[in-house]
């Protein structure tokens, strides 16, 4: 069932954005933060393997994604972290396990670096804190061309607005070990929401602010809570980049998911759920 049809969808204001989020279940609180250019529906496969009788899941549409609004701001790593931090306050969370993938993983680590009292531990899946001009350019040759052009003045705004469903699918497939793991209904929903007012501008701004995601790594040494770094063996990040994160985060545990790319919650939801269940 599409997550948009589930009970438990709410809205709240955070950092000038009207945020949509899903809140279901009871028990240990788990916050799910999605990847760049996806939305809370991304976690549909993972939710099938989480027991909401034991855990309370809070899955968020980040600003400029899904059905959250897209204010005219600079979409830096700090902006996203501020927005999530504000939503944690609205939801009055306590001792939450924050699980994020891609930019969601980087946001989770930034919250930990801020020593946010609502966060008890972090699972960072394929955190997006590496790569000159952004790791998404490593997806496919097509993605490299598109996301290079998106950074150009004038032309970039046009490129951001002319995304088609076929282009979106090809770029996302470049982040998968097995492209068959990409559900058609998810691509349909991503395409629909990507056409909402301001979303193309927001995504281009996120790409333009690629340096901010790398700069956020400077705070990792301040983390003083348990962190698990998880990488798909076919993720866009390189071994040296993964090792640098492990060294930067005190006491970090690192694990690798076999036969998985950048979008591990689509390809290996059972393994990710098992890892989460071991921590709650």
The CATH superfamily is Alpha/Beta hydrolase fold, catalytic domain
Number of distinct beta strands? 8
Strand content: 15-25%
Termini gap: 26 Å
How does the major sheet shape up?
8 strands, mixed
Quaternary state of the chains: single chain
Stretches where pLDDT is under 50 for at least 5 consecutive residues are none
Number of helices: 12
Secondary-structure blueprint of this entry?
Blueprint: E1 9-14, E2 17-25, E3 28-33, H1 44-47, E4 55-60, H2 77-90, E5 96-101, H3 103-113, E6 119-125, H4 141-149, H5 155-161, H6 165-173, H7 184-194, H8 199-208, H9 210-215, E7 227-232, H10 239-248, E8 253-257, H11 264-267, H12 269-277
Helix pairs in contact: 2-3, 5-8
Describe the structure.
This protein is α/β, with parallel strands linked by helices and 280 residues long. It has a single domain (3-277), classed as Rossmann fold (3-Layer(aba) Sandwich), CATH 3.40.50. Helices cover 37% and strands 18% of the residues. The chain is built from twelve helices and eight strands. Strand 7 (227-232), helix 10 (239-248) and strand 8 form a beta-alpha-beta unit. Helix 2 packs across helix 3 (103-113) and helix 5 (155-161) crosses helix 8. The longest helix has 14 residues, at 77-90. It is globular, with a radius of gyration of 17 Å. The two termini are 26 Å apart.
């Amino acid at each position: 069932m599409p997550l948009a049809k589930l009970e438990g969808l709410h809205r709240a204001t955070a950092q000038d954005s009207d945020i949509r989020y899903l809140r279901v279940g009871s028990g240990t609180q788990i916050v799910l933060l999605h990847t760049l250019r996806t939305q809370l529906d991304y976690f549909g496969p993972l939710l099938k393997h989480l027991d909401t009788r034991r855990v309370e899941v809070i899955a968020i549409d980040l600003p400029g994604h899904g059905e959250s609004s897209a204010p005219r701001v600079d979409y830096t790593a700090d902006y996203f972290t501020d927005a999530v931090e504000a939503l944690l306050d609205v939801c009055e969370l306590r001792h939450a396990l924050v699980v994020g993938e891609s930019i969601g993983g980087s946001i989770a680590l930034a919250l930990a670096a801020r020593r946010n009292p609502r966060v008890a531990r972090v699972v960072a899946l394929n955190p997006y804190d590496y790569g000159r001009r952004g790791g998404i350019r490593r997806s496919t040759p097509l993605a490299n061309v598109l996301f290079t052009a998106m950074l150009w003045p004038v032309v970039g705004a046009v490129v951001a607005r002319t995304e088609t469903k076929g282009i979106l699918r090809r770029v996302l497939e470049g982040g998968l070990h097995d492209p068959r793991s990409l559900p058609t209904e998810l691509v349909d929903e991503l395409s629909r929401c990507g056409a909402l007012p301001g979303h193309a501008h927001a995504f281009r701004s996120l790409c333009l602010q690629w340096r901010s995601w790398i700069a956020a790594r400077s705070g990792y040494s301040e983390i003083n809570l348990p962190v698990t770094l998880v990488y798909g063996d076919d993720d866009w990040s390189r071994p040296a980049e993964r090792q640098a994160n492990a060294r930067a985060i005190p006491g970090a545990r690192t694990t690798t998911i076999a036969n998985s790319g950048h979008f591990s919650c689509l390809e290996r939801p059972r393994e990710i759920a098992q890892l989460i269940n071991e921590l709650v």
